[in-house]
Amino acid sequence: MFLVVFRNRKRADLDAGAYSADANRMEEMARAQPGFLSFKSYTADDGEVIALSEWADAEAARAWGSQPDHAVVQAKGRAEYYASYTLYTCDNPRTHRFESPDA
Length: 103
Fold this sequence. Notes:
The chain has helices at 16-31, 58-65, 68-81, and strands at residues 2-10, 36-43, 49-55, 82-91. By secondary structure, the chain is α+β, with helices and mostly antiparallel strands.
């Protein structure tokens, strides 16, 4: 598994409707990409967002990162949507799991 963590803060002058439309389209496209496993996004009380995507391997994640329509929206994100972001990647992260028998 290859993990991608996208930590970001949106711009104060963000066009929320345009951002939402682009984000929804990108998620739909990512889910259709070979090697896609999962995506979740969390927003903190202070507005910071953590988006987690899991891919079968690094090649699948890189292919998504360079997909032409995604690349266009990435540039738009830098120009119009994000005040800042950090992208973290990890191949074969060490994983610990727990599930309560009562769950």
